[in-house]
């Protein structure tokens, strides 16, 4: 029973009209499942979701057509390598999802629809569980940016205010701005329960000479490679 489930539906590496329709239907179905599960927890674009849904069927067709033909396989590999230079780098999770969709397409293209289904569901579930768990760990963290004049000894000057309003604070970046006349300090913070953001910023303004201050949640770009 297990051998039949994990075996290939292709006979001697060839396919018939029925098997072609079967593996194509499975590829489209699994692609739709991957796209749906990915977009349930991870913020992405409509075009990327459509891409995830169609990649397995496209890869599957390529594998079916080049099966056993070394020359065609080398030509297709060369064509696919050009795609890398026409694509912008994505986030780590997006690259993982693309490789998952390609792996599913490879499996269905070789007729292993049982393996493809199990692999797609298991890996998608792990990806979503880990994403949800890690997102919860980051929940509540903000990025605080404080602009200070160049003559201010900023090291430790905001510690009293930060200790009063935050449970966690860490300076992550210091850079000069405005032709070197100002410093911009970046902190990763977690506000105390019930602390007033307005009072917090007003207290910081008294320390930095009423220069620019921003406090917000991290952008999704932090997950990029």
Q: Would you kindly provide a written description of the structure presented here, covering whatever features stand out?
A:
- With 225 residues, the chain is of the alpha+beta class.
- The chain folds into 2 domains: 2-137, no CATH class; 141-216, Alpha-Beta Plaits (2-Layer Sandwich), CATH 3.30.70.
- Helices cover 57% and strands 16% of the residues.
- It is built from 8 helices and 4 strands; from the N terminus they run H-H-H-H-H-H-E-H-E-E-H-E.
- The chain has helices at residues 2-6, 17-41, 46-66, 70-83, 92-109, 113-138, 159-165, 197-208, and strands spanning 141-149, 166-177, 182-191, 213-216.
- The chain has a 4-stranded antiparallel β-sheet with strand order 2-3-1-4.
- The longest helix is centred in the middle third of the chain and has 26 residues, at 113-138.
- Mean pLDDT is 80; it is low at 221-225.
Rg over C-alpha atoms, rounded to the nearest angstrom: 26 Å
How many helices? The count is 8
Helix and strand sequence: HHHHHHEHEEHE
Number of strands: 4
Contiguous uncertain segments of 5+ residues: 221-225
Approximately how much beta-strand content do the residues carry?
A: 15-25%
Largest sheet: 4 strands, antiparallel
Classify the secondary structure makeup into a structural class: alpha+beta
The rough form would be described as: elongated
Biggest sheet strand order reads 2-3-1-4
How many domains, in number, for the residues?
2
Percentage of residues assigned to helices: 55-70%
């Amino acid at each position: 029973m297990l051998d039949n489930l994990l075996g290939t539906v292709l006979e001697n590496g060839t396919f018939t009209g029925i098997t072609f329709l079967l593996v194509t239907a499975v590829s489209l179905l699994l692609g739709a499942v991957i796209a749906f599960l990915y977009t349930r927890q991870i913020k992405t674009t409509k075009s990327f979701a459509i891409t995830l849904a169609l990649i397995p069927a496209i890869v599957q067709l390529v594998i079916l057509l080049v099966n056993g033909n070394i020359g065609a396989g080398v030509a297709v590999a060369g064509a696919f390598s050009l795609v890398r230079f026409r694509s912008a780098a994505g986030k780590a999770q997006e690259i993982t999802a693309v490789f998952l969709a390609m792996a599913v397409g490879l499996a269905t293209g070789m007729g292993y629809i049982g393996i493809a289904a199990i692999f797609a569901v298991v890996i998608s579930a792990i990806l979503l569980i880990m994403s949800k768990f890690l997102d919860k760990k980051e929940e509540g963290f903000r990025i605080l940016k404080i602009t200070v004049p160049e003559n201010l000894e900023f090291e430790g000057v905001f510690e009293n205010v930060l200790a009063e309003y935050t449970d966690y604070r860490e300076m992550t970046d210091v850079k000069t701005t405005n032709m070197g006349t100002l410093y911009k300090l970046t902190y990763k913070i977690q506000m105390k329960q019930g602390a007033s953001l307005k009072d917090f910023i007003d207290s910081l303004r008294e320390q930095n000479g009423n220069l620019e201050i921003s406090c917000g949640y991290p952008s999704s770009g932090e997950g990029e490679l």
